[in-house]
Structures are given as C-alpha cells and as structure tokens.
Amino acid sequence: MRWTWRNLDSIGAALGEHVLLVGAALLLAAAVALPLGVLAARRPVLRAAAMGGSAVLYSVPTLALFALLVPLLGLGFRAALLALASYAMPVLLRAVVTGLEGVAPAVRDAADGMGLTPRQKLWQVELPLALPSMLAGLRVAVATLVSAATVAAYIGGGGLGVLILTGLDQGHTEKILVGATLVCALALAADTALRRMQRA
Amino acid sequence: MIELRGITKAWPGGAGVQALDLSVPEGECCALIGPSGCGKTTTLRLVNRLVEPDAGSIRITGQDALAQDPVQLRRGIGYVIQEGGLFPHRRVGANVAVVPALLGWDAARTRARVEEVLALVGLDPAQYRDRWPHQLSGGERQRVGVARALAADPPVLLLDEPFGAVDPLRRAQLQQEVLALLKRLRKTVLLVTHDVQEAVLLGDSLALMRAGRLVQHAAPAEMLARPADGFVADFLGADRALTRLGLFRISDVPREAASVPGEALPEATTLRDALSAMLERGVTALPVAEGGSLTLEAVLASR
Lengths: 200, 303
What we know:
The structure holds two protein chains of two kinds.
Chain A: H1 2-6, H2 8-42, H3 44-59, H4 62-73, H5 77-101, H6 105-113, H7 118-151, H8 161-170, H9 173-199
Chain B: E1 2-9, E2 17-24, E3 29-33, H1 40-47, E4 55-60, E5 63-64, H2 70-75, E6 77-81, H3 92-96, H4 98-102, H5 107-120, H6 125-128, H7 138-150, E7 156-160, H8 168-185, E8 188-192, H9 196-202, E9 205-210, E10 213-218, H10 220-225, H11 230-236, H12 240-245, H13 271-281, E11 285-287, E12 293-295, H14 296-301
Parallel strand pairs in B: 3-8, 3-9, 6-7, 7-8
Antiparallel strand pairs in B: 1-2, 1-4, 4-5, 9-10, 11-12
Helix pairs in contact in B: 5-7
C-alpha cells in the first residue's frame, strides 16, 4: 500500500480523467442520439437506417474501434472520446426510440386533440413518458463506457486504464489492483446513482 | 352548431367519407353510428381537423373551421376518447388543467375551474385531484376525461366511443350522468358509438353511416319507427320497436282514470319497462303511482 499512499494525487488525476472521458463521451453521444431518436421515432425509413447503422456500430469491438480512429485523429483524448461516444450512441438511440414508441397512441391522440403543438407534445408528453426507457439506456451506456474507457489508455486517452496498463508492464500488482478496483467502484457507484434516479 | 358541407376525405385503403352533409344544432347531441369502417370516427376527427378534408366546408359556431389555425381550433373543442387518453405522468388535477394551461390561465383561475369540473363529473376534487390516472377505475378515468374536455368550457364537444372501456354495470349510470350534464350545460355534441342503445339514449338525432356516406339522419324515435331502408333496419336491430319504447315514459301517453290492482309503477318509467312489467305479470293494464292506469292499448298506440 506504500505506492498508493505516495501516489494519491496521480491516482486521483487518473480517476478524474476517467470520469471526464466517460462524462464527455456520454454528453456527445446524447447530443446525437436524442435529436436523431426523436426524428427516427416518427419516420419509419430513417428509423430502420438509424437502428441498423447503430447496431453495426455497437457490434464493433472497442479496441478495434480505437485502432481505426487512431490514423484519423491520432493518439490522445480526442480519439478516445470519439470512440467512446460512438460506442454509447447506439445504446442511447435505441433507448430514445423505444421510449418514444412506447407512448400509447391514445395519449398522443388526446394531446393532439386538445391542441398541443407538436413541440409541446414532444416536451410535455412524449419525452417525459419516454424517460424511464431513456434512463434504463443511460444505465447500460454508463456501465459500458466506464469499462470501455479503461481500454482508452492504449491510445493515450488517459484514465484509470493507464494504472492497469503500466502496472501490467512493470509487474506492479498494487498499481493494477488500485486501477481495477477504482474502475469497478466507479461503475457500481454510477449504476447505483442512476438506479435511484430511475425509481424517483 | 356544427355544420359539415360536402365533406370528402379519401383514404388510400378506401373507406373514407364521401360528400357528407351533416349539421348538429346548438345544444343538441348527434350520435354517429354505423358498422366499423363506415367513416364515423373519420367524420368526428374531421371536425377538430385531426383529419384534414379533401373537399368541403366545416363551420363551428358560425366560424369557418378550415380557415383557423388547427391548434387554436382544437383548444376550443372538447375532445373525449375511449379510456380517456389521460396523460399517465400527470396527476388528475394536472390532466384536467391541460387546456387552461395551454390557454394561459393563471393558477388561481385554473385551480378553481379544475375543482368545479371535477365536481361536475361527480368526483370529489379533494379526493381525486392528486391521484394518478393508474389509481383510478375505468369509469373514473372516463369521468376525468370528460372533466378535462369541459375544463375550458368549449361550446362544442367531440366524444369518440367515450364509454367503450367502462364495465357494463357502471356504463348505464355514467351515460345517464353525462346525458344530464350535457343537457344542463347545453353543449353541442358529436358522439361516435357502435352501440345503438347508447346512441338512442344520448342522441337528439342519430346519423347512420355506411361506406363513407350518410344513410339516414333523424331523431331516434323517427329512425326507429321508419328506417330508411333494410340496412338501417338491420343495423338498428330486430328489437328496434322495443328500443323505441325506451324513449317514451308513462307520462307521455294517455292514461285510464280507473285504477287496477297490483304494484304501481312511477310515471317516469319507460314504456319499454312498463311493457316488460305487463309481460312479466301477464296483465294488460298496470297501476300508475301518480294515479290512474296504463293499458296495453295505450302502449301500442304510441307507435
């Protein structure tokens, strides 16, 4: 444990990087998935294309996606961010589309019939009703990203993966354990927080 | 007043509405009936422009509905659908307040109106305002649906199978209450139903549709007594003469002065129920509680 006590600041920095990477990737993914999902839920052709495309995107292995992006964006935070965002986007997109599709037709009909504008219907009725599905998708996305971000260390993305990776290189068990434990703890903490939000 | 003139709407799959003329005078209820796919729901949805017509004109309380912004138009028309279509994520009070909120009413006025309309539909505001839709029975949800439609006090109401999801025992009571309410508030109502008994009970007039066309539009007693053709007669049912007797009460027909023995019926009893009582007792005359007696001849003469 001596190493840990001496390196608390760099461990903290790695944890901070990890959280930042996951958070930024989630924001980026949501910024694409939310509008795309809203559009796709109303247009069958776009829906098929978006769902099909995102299924392909999601099935690409994390490491392969990182490798593919390096020639385009180089090593570093940006490449890692983009890879993680494109990994989370399909999960969020599916959650938005299924959430919106789950709104009962009678409820939409009542909203139209009472004189809500399409925008009012979206914000006041459809999105609130899609929220449980969207939160469930967010939970999956967060769990996926917290672990996938570990791999980002391979392309210089930083984060807790760096501790594990250098620990493996140096045969430094304590370093590996600290990195791995913090990744697990982060995943569990985020999931617990989101589960509480889902219940509320 | 709702006035449809030459309304035509074609659907790709057929079964639209063809050159329909229909008017509902102010304060009256017109029940649209007909087999499924006859265009009755399309007709209803044309009035608040959830469906846009290909041709024809629509006037509501004298105004050209097709010249107005559809969103504004709908805020001025009450709309009740099967199961109520309540917003599941909002409490009863917020559901009822949807249109007032859209119209920008202030909180105090909205709150007072929500309490008023909940009481109108027979729900205690203190008890129901803060409940969620999933905590209500089918009949209660439907009442809230009616309250929501009445909230901004629109002159015109559209009811699409409003009692379809209510269990049969409660349905009759709810129909009676809604009927009394609509009469008292003098709303102009277009009602879609597949239930002839419901149409006869609630409608001042019946409009029977078939394959997108209006086959007959008449007062219930008139249509039941003189169906325009075999289709109308079939649709109204073999028991249409009995249904028609349900429209009249003992007080509507002449009585004999002499009393007869037996348990007396109040004069508010329908002739249908009176005839049923005669059949049950095997008699041709019944005593009336208010005095005198009702004879089988008088019932038969009411045709």
